[in-house]
Amino acid sequence: MTAHQGQGIAGTINALFEGGLPIGLQAYDGSVSGNPDSEYALELLTPRGLAYILTAPGDLGLARAYVSGDLELHGTHPGDPYPLLSLILDKTDFRAPKPAELLEIVRTLGVKNFRPPAPPPQEHLPAWRHAVEGLRHASLNALTWGRHSRERDADAIHHHYDVSNTFYEYVLGPSMTYTCALFPTEDATLEEAQYAKYDLICQKLGLKPGQRLLDLGCGWGGMVRHAAKHYGVKALGVTLSREQASWAQEEIKRQGLDDLAEVRFSDYRNVAETGFEAVSSIGLTEHIGVANYPSYFGFIESRLKPQGRLLNHCITRPDNTSRASAGKFIDRYVFPDGELIGSGTIVSAVEDAGLEVQHHENIRVHYAKTLTGWNKNLVDHWDACVAEVGLGTAKVWGLYMAGSRLGFERNNIQLHHVLATKTVTGDSGYPLRHTF
User: Fold this and answer.
1) CA 168 → CA 164, 252, 394, distances in Å?
2) Mind spelling out the 3-state secondary structure of 370-430?
3) What share of the chain is helix, strand, coil (3-state, %, to 5)?
4) pTM listed for this prediction
5) pLDDT at res. 147
6) What is the model's pLDDT at position 150?
């Protein structure tokens, strides 16, 4: 008799995880398995949830069941499932059952549960579906829907960033900044840390009144406004999110910065202006695609004036050999087509574009603290967030932010700043020592 025989659905599923789950597991047939002493548990409520788990083993199947309401988490708030995830992170992949064991599992659970249900509506089309969609539209050349084409990049950004500005106001707080903050002290507030982040970037770029800044992937315009307000530069930001651009322009007008700051709803590749003293790229490189680094950093080099500076702020991997994909759950629910690679690859791409790297730093631990703050905001405004975007989407955000926090804490992912100059005939314009 195998370990899962006679234990119902919960026992059968638990046996598929290497070593079993470290938390409790309950199923709709009344069966119980996993760790009975844990204060946390998963409860499988429906046959559809079982089918999600069986047909997409690992984090994607569990996420589908959870987002759709077929799986519940006990012992933790849905806006911050960090305590539960900390116990099961990296333990959600099924072990490979032996042929005889697999046959018994099918008999126990029923073959109908191995037919994949339709994914929840919050899930973004996978890459192969994009190709099919491209072929279906006779008016479009299928190649326009290739990975990181302008059309597909716009679609990916729309999926994540055009959720609801009101929702983002609840989660991000007054700064409306959706990138890693920089905590000057352990007890600094999220707002203080976001201010410190923007100020550090301005210092790294050596911004001075009258200079021109181009901010690529500017979000709701936080960097643009900070640079214009506190450093007197003329700042242009571009974003592929129409909702972000609209909110940013209204805020620029409200703060009386119209003469210095502008945010455009535009692909960065459509920026025709050149001769900028500085370019900031804060959280955009993740969306570019590793294969497109040469053209991206080449574009930046072409927009900088001699001695101009680039500050690239990007989530990275701790090595340069892992697959660039951000993972199935992140790709389908959070950042479609997102790619992460080691900072060494980014440094190489910047240098290969003709820029001279002057400074390189990892602020990984600051992103864990940033995500902790966002999770708290989501919990504090949970009912309002659910009313704004729906329970499924709010669950996605709680799951994604808590899981990402763990990733940064455990050094599975990092956050790097790379500062570079457009050095011409040996003249970088950079001081003898860093001034920040």
Assistant:
1) 6, 18, 11
2) HHHHHHHHHHHCHHHHHHHHCHHHHHHHHHHHHHHHHHHHCCCCEEEEEEEECCECCECCC
3) 45, 15, 35
4) 0.89
5) 52
6) 59
Q: What angle do CA 9, 10, 13 make, to 5 degrees?
A: 80
CA distance 375 to 85: 13
- What the block records as the tokens of 128 is 């192969």
Residues present in the chain in total = 436
Q: Which pLDDT does position 103 carry in this prediction?
A: 87
pLDDT of residue 113: 87
Coil, strand or helix: which one is 101? Answer: helix
Buried b (16+ CB within 10 A) or exposed e, 190-200: bebbbbbbbbb
- Domains of the chain from N-terminus onward: 8-114 (no CATH), 161-421 (3.40.50.150)
Residues 6 or more apart from 250 whose CB is under 8 A from it?
none
How many CB atoms are closer than 10 A to CB 188? 16
Q: Look up residue 59 and give its amino acid.
A: D
Q: Report the alpha-carbon distance of residue 108 to residue 416 in Å, rounded.
A: 49
At residue 144, the pLDDT reads 43
Distance of CA 51 to the CA centre of its chain: 27
DSSP line for 204-243? HTT--TT-EEEEET-TTTHHHHHHHHHH--EEEEEES-HH
One-letter amino acid for residue 395 of the chain = K
Cα 75 → chain centroid: 26
Six-digit token string for 8: 């119902």
What is the C-alpha separation between 136 and 114, in angstroms, rounded? 29
In degrees to the nearest 10, what's the CA dihedral of 208, 213, 219, 225? Answer: 40
pLDDT value at residue 327: 73
Are the CB atoms for 34 and 100 separated by under 8 Å?
no
Averaged pLDDT, groups of 10, the chain, 436 residues long: 59 92 96 96 97 92 96 98 95 85 86 92 69 47 48 48 84 97 98 98 98 98 98 98 96 98 97 98 96 98 98 97 80 86 98 98 98 98 97 96 96 97 98 97
State both tokens at 138: 């006779």
Q: What is the pLDDT of residue 414?
A: 98
What angle, 0 to 180 degrees and rounded to 10, lies between the N-to-C axes of helices 364-380 and 391-409?
Answer: 150
Of 420, 432, 278, give the one whose Cα is nearest residue 351. Answer: 420
- Specify the pLDDT at position 90: 87
Nearest-CA neighbor of 262 among 238, 278, 280? 238
How is residue 100 annotated by DSSP? H
